[in-house]
Amino acid sequence: MRIQSIETFANEYVAFVRLRTDDGAEGWGQVSTYHADITAQVLQRQIAPYVLGRDPAELESLVDEILEIEFKFPGSYVRRALTGLDTAVWDLRGKLAGKSVCELLGGAPRPFPVYASSMRRDITPEDEVERLVALRDRQGFQAFKFRIGKECGHDEDEWPGRTEAIVRAMRQAMGDNVTLLVDANCCYTPKKAVEIGHFLENYGIVHYEEPCPYWHFEWTAEVTEALRPLNIQVAGGEQDCSTTHWQRMINAKAFDIVQPDICYIGGVTRMLRVARMAHKAGLIFTPHTANLSLVTVFTLHVMGAIENPGPYVELSIEGEDYYPWQVDLYDPVLTVRDGNVQIPDAPGWGVEINPEWLKGATHLVSELKM
């Protein structure tokens, strides 16, 4: 079996990938979201030429080979594009075997706990509390993440007093039996981050995400060490796409919770490597999945199979008004019941890409010449 063609179907936000083999089998994947049309071109230019004619069984070595060939491009785009290849091959493997990707990885599809993840800072504490409480009552969520600070905020709040107000209001509204997580999106210097961490711990916040700029992982390590005696854990790493850098961060004990994004890091193959690093170090593995594209589907399959999954998967609560581009991408959609989402159990990823969406996308193809 050889890879015959790689197609991309893209708009600005999403790009799906179809891989076909010379015997007619196919698999579907996705590159990372945002500027996905650019990433699709990177895939066609810097991934596809090394893949056509190769056996899909070579994926694990192929991902290393491609990154070595493209060693002049160590940044995010090539890894985001590589995800399209990797995830399409995993879908192909599942369909050929008649198994879900979760099963291929040694897991079992099942309902998996999710936490409701808010993406908004342009919302008052009162309005945020109201919508999250409604989700708790309607869909059974037992864990929620909301935003504090200001994105890359240099110690500033989104507006004065918002962080303190929303933390207090959320705990008061939710009571003591609901798990609360926060995301600071690189807001703080270490001193301020530690100060905020002590405040958060007083209100039972258990997950403190990206307290410091991610490019200063030593800062985050300092915060993690200072807060270790408390009942709060520091999470981070979503932006990082180098597995060797991941090993450095894990060795430095930069985080309590390891949080790569499967689409940023390059796909399932490379994600599993980080999961194994985390497992060896005794760390929790709770990936970043901040939208309802296939990133959440991919992550559910992986979390259903690894040895060290965190207690839940992130599930964005933002709908069409906030992310209009994530509507009608695939079927069946992920549905929350009693705070859980079913890991798809059909072969491959267990979802079908919407053919109507594909008709409106920009189509590119690389094909093996006979």
**What is the ordering of alpha helices and beta strands?**
EEEHHHHEHEHEHEHEHEHHEHEEEEEHE
Q: Share of helix among residues?
A: 25-40%
Low-pLDDT parts are none
Backbone structural class: alpha/beta
Number of strands: 16
Determine the number of helices (DSSP H or I, runs of at least 4 residues): 13
C-alpha end-to-end distance:
15 Å
User: What is the overall pLDDT average?
Assistant: 97
Largest sheet: 10 strands, mixed
Oligomer: single chain
Taken as a percent bin, the fraction of beta residues is 15-25%
Which descriptor suits the 3D outline?
A: globular
Please compute the radius of gyration using only Cα atoms.
20 Å
Can you characterise this structure?
The chain has 370 residues and is an alpha/beta fold. It contains 13 helices and 16 strands. The longest helix has 22 residues.
Short description:
Helix content is 38%, strand content 19%. The chain contains 13 helices and 16 strands.
What key attributes describe this structure?
19% strand; 13 helices; 10-stranded mixed beta sheet; alpha/beta; 4-stranded antiparallel beta sheet; 370 residues; globular
